[in-house]
Amino acid sequence: MTYQIKAFENGIRVVHQEVTSTRLVHCGFILDIGSRDETEEQVGLAHFWEHMAFKGTQKRKAFHILNRLDSVGGELNAYTTKEKICFYATVLQQHWNKAADLLCDITFNSTFPPKQIEKERQVILEEMAMYRDSPDDALQDEFDSLLFPNHSLGYNILGTEDSVKSFTQEDFINFIAQHMDTSRIVVSVVGNISFKKALNRLAPLLSNIPASRSSLRRTPSLTYKPQSSAFHKEITQANCALGKPAFSIDDPRRFKLHLLNNILGGPSMNSRLNMALREKHGLVYSIESVYQAFTDTGFIGIYYGTEEKAAEKARKIVLKEIQRICTKKLGSMQLHMGKEQAIGQMAMAEENYAGLMLVYGKTLLDKGKIERLEDIFSSIRSATAEELMELANEVYDVDKFSFLTYLPK
């Protein structure tokens, strides 16, 4: 399968891939704006904007936005991350024009009605309460602030109760005026529609968007020092996190780190951490190791929950597995299986066309190009056991780890 890219004079780019084996079209408007672009007073504003995009535009009220695609069996959604806001939809191919028009409208023409702000403010406060009641989610959010102290990457994407209660219509308008940059917007389309037909609808919509540029630049977090914190919560398990900053998106070693992380504690049941903590000792229901890359930094994190009385034993086993991957070279069969597993997972992910659409948009914004899967596979296949052990000693240096634990009261 091949993709095509079209750039408009205002800087907005369209990336498209036709898939004839589906009845659906997936489309997303991906903006290179996220929670890390907020000031301390604005924390939570990008996520609030994502909510408010559905609450009214210059030509549609909230009901008409929500009903437009639902009434034809489509889906309309959005998300906010540290570095991106995305508005996206999935529809049957015959309803493509409706989806494209609606996504463009909510992305560029939201009016942020004050009455709707008051309603959605309470919705977000409830969302925050829901996350606080989920210790694994709250733990991961708080762990970010240890990895990126006094930096916007460490802010909670949802914001704080005080910040969410403070936002006005003017705050949204000013934030968008400051950050909207049409050269940092990608429209991604994957599905059963030709490039020509997609552009026939998108061209008149996108070419009318005025060009805008933002002079704001992201600054990296440079103040990391290992920390260890523990808090008592109204929970029944000990919830634990450990990790440290790691490679950015531009680091050529990131795919090899992805492979190493996958072997240690990736999503498969045969990861080393899952085999040691769940299968051998029965200490956890789930444990995950993640590697997240940003434009100028990244982090590795390991998260799990266990009985309070088993917390120390579980930590020792985790550290033992980390030490093992740093000191004992992978055997040829282990390395081969690890590579095949990582490559297989990526190949399966490409079959998820909604996910592929989002990956295309994000990658084009971050890298200026779409990385071919074969090139990624080649990077993974070229990894040697010696390289991975050297990488492990650099990245999984536990002396530089931070630790965060939630304990039952």
TrEMBL record:
It comes from the Bacteria. Residues 13-160 form the Peptidase M16 N-terminal domain. Signal peptide: none annotated. Transmembrane segments: none annotated. Residues 166-332 form the Peptidase M16 C-terminal domain. Pfam families: Peptidase_M16, Peptidase_M16_C. InterPro entries: Metalloenz_LuxS/M16, MPP/UQCRC_Complex, Pept_M16_N, Peptidase_M16_C. One of its GO terms (molecular function) is metal ion binding. Belongs to the peptidase M16 family. This is Peptidase M16. It comes from Cyclobacterium qasimii.
